[in-house]
Amino acid sequence: MTNEIRTIFNRIAPVYDQLNDQLSLGQHRIWKEMTVKWSAAKPGDTSLDLCCGTGDLTFRLARRVGRTGKVYGVDFSPNLLNNAQERCKNYYPQPPINWLEGDVLNLPFETNYFDAATMGYGLRNVKNIVKSLQEIYRVLKPGAKAAILDFHRPSHQQLRAVQQWYLDNCVVPIATNLGLKEEYAYISPSLDRFPTGREQIELARQVGFQEVRHYPIANGMMGVLVVIR
Ligand SMILES: C/C(=C\Cc1cc(O)c2ccccc2c1O)CCC[C@H](C)CCC[C@H](C)CCCC(C)C
Ligand SMILES: C[S@@+](CC[C@H](N)C(=O)[O-])C[C@H]1O[C@@H](n2cnc3c(N)ncnc32)[C@H](O)[C@@H]1O
């Protein structure tokens, strides 16, 4: 399963950023900005972006923590990480970002290391959500926050139908034209398996987070889980 997921992301790397802009009509930039804000990262912080992909959230985090801060981006797809490093050279040279190829279920950091963390569209894709939350808990300092953005099924029936229509009639056909049908068809079943906001709150509490909130955005089609260690 882990290898299959890594293969999906390695394969979509050449079109990933362009399709995110097209398919979300640019909205993913706003959702990512909200996520960084909810992580409460501030100048000078040591911060982590999990499942960083091509680095969209990582760059935003870097802007927040500034030159006195530190930023790490972790992902297990070498192709997406290459894109992140290329974008970084051209677009965001300061502060230096530490790009690490690795599994977020086994983070290469000491316990109590980070002041803030973000994760964008990663939690739905990991093979063990509880383990992922446990790793986030472990590497955050006591009192530090993480903000976790992902797709959701809206609770409202008609909005669910609109979302499914959009996936079936826009997202998958556009991806099919690029030879990436299966890769994008994967989104729909992954949404069905993904715990609801309420269920995520429960899981995060069980892991031990002191304070947990879930904010639905984009009419419940997206959501941000905010956890404080
Ligand atoms: C940020 C976006 C996508 C991230 C993303 C996440 C994944 O888990 C993937 C898995 C496999 C392949 C690709 C991805 C992936 O790109 C962009 C969001 C685009 C969405 C596909 C659709 C956006 C939904 C809108 C909120 C619905 C608008 C409906 C309306 C009728 C216009
Ligand atoms: C949809 S992309 C999101 C990328 C980026 N965060 C963004 O918002 O554009 C999901 C990312 O999660 C990564 N990923 C999934 N499971 C992972 C794991 N166990 N360890 C590290 N990265 C993982 C994938 O390689 C991919 O880059």
UniProtKB/TrEMBL annotation:
Pfam families: Ubie_methyltran. Gene3D superfamilies: Vaccinia Virus protein VP39. One of its GO terms (biological process) is methylation. Transmembrane segments: none annotated. Coiled coil: none annotated. It catalyses: demethylphylloquinol + S-adenosyl-L-methionine = phylloquinol + S-adenosyl-L-homocysteine + H(+). Keywords: Methyltransferase, S-adenosyl-L-methionine, Transferase. InterPro entries: MenG (IPR032904), SAM-dependent_MTases_sf (IPR029063), UbiE/COQ5_MeTrFase (IPR004033), UbiE/COQ5_MeTrFase_CS (IPR023576). Its EC number is 2.1.1.329. Methyltransferase required for the conversion of 2-phytyl-1,4-beta-naphthoquinol to phylloquinol. This is 2-phytyl-1,4-naphtoquinone methyltransferase. It comes from Dolichospermum circinale CS-537/01. The lineage of its organism: Bacteria, Bacillati, Cyanobacteriota, Cyanophyceae, Nostocales. The gene is ubiE.
